[in-house]
Design brief:
With 359 residues, the chain is an alpha/beta fold. The chain folds into 2 domains: 219 residues, Quinone Oxidoreductase, Chain A, domain 1; 128 residues, NAD(P)-binding Rossmann-like Domain (Rossmann fold, 3-Layer(aba) Sandwich). Helices cover 24% and strands 28% of the residues. Strands 3, 4, 5, 10, 11, 18 and 19 form a 7-stranded mixed sheet that branches. α4 packs across α5 and α4 packs across α10. The protein is globular. It starts with a strand and ends with a helix. The relative contact order is 0.16.
Length: 359
Amino acid sequence: MLKTPAYAALDPASPLVPFTIERREPGPHEVLIDILYCGVCHSDIHQARDGWGGAIFPMVPGHEIVGRVSRVGAQVTRFSVGEAVGVGCFVDSCRQCPSCNAGEQQYCDFGMSGTYNSYERNPDDRRFDKSRPTFGGYSTQITVDQDYVLRIPTALPLDRAAPLLCAGITTYSPLKHFGVKPGDRVAVVGLGGLGHMAVKLAAAMGAEVTVLSTSESKRDDAIALGAKDFAATRDGTVFKTHAMRFDFVVDTVSAPHDYNAYLNLLKVDGTMILLGIPEAPEVVSAGSLIRKRRRLAGSMIGGIRETQEMLDFCAEHGVASDIELIRMDQINEAYERMLRSDVRYRFVIDLGTLRHGTG
């Protein structure tokens, strides 16, 4: 086993602290990755503070991982030592169900193995082994089966590529699945880590993007990111002036808000896609859907195939996340700033600061 420096939440009420975990030596089909950068997702806060329940402590968060292969198993064929690679929100799945066979491991019938706050799988029966919790990217290395590793194109800066492994694929997948095409009018609700990627990706697909935000101060940023228009939703008249305007509404907000108000912005046959998860259920009026044959849908990340497709698309179109690079020891401050929406638009941890004892 490989002793590995990390940062962990020991319980939901305490700050993250330095911690040592053990990584396994790579098996025949596995690669060992030296982690260079790890994005900080808002779900890291939810999980580390047990906001969704069922948290496993001690917890090492982080599922937006970019690094370089440092060692490969004897039967690895896809990667070589030194290659730039990524690991996203999951590190395994049952590999046998219809979703896994379709390359959509995120919807595994038996549950994917999350990169952290989950469990490794028994290689014999593919069931979760609850004696082996998974630990994430707030650490200096990780061992992963080659089939769950992504190749980072050379055109992408490694630090700005890290958030693509969650924020990027979480927004790319529904845009592709629901068929956003050039000329479509797409409203993006919220301009945070997810929202800013939704703007960039939808614009790169040729859509006409409008950002809907409670914060007027984000207008200039929205336009700079590729939006054609911006509306501050604190002004209630927005929901009248923009009624039936959009083909798609991509809702990235996890705070409580009125789904019906946004549904009424859709044209006939329009689709509203939920990406954020408010902690309390929201009420949806049947009339908001029925009167214009609208759809209310949800989406969760993407499978390995689609995530690689997204990375290649981003490299081709010059799309990467806007980030603020931090030291590992700044993580607790970063969490507090994220809760105040004080980041443009994703924190990324430089794991060299942990590896070399400078953070």
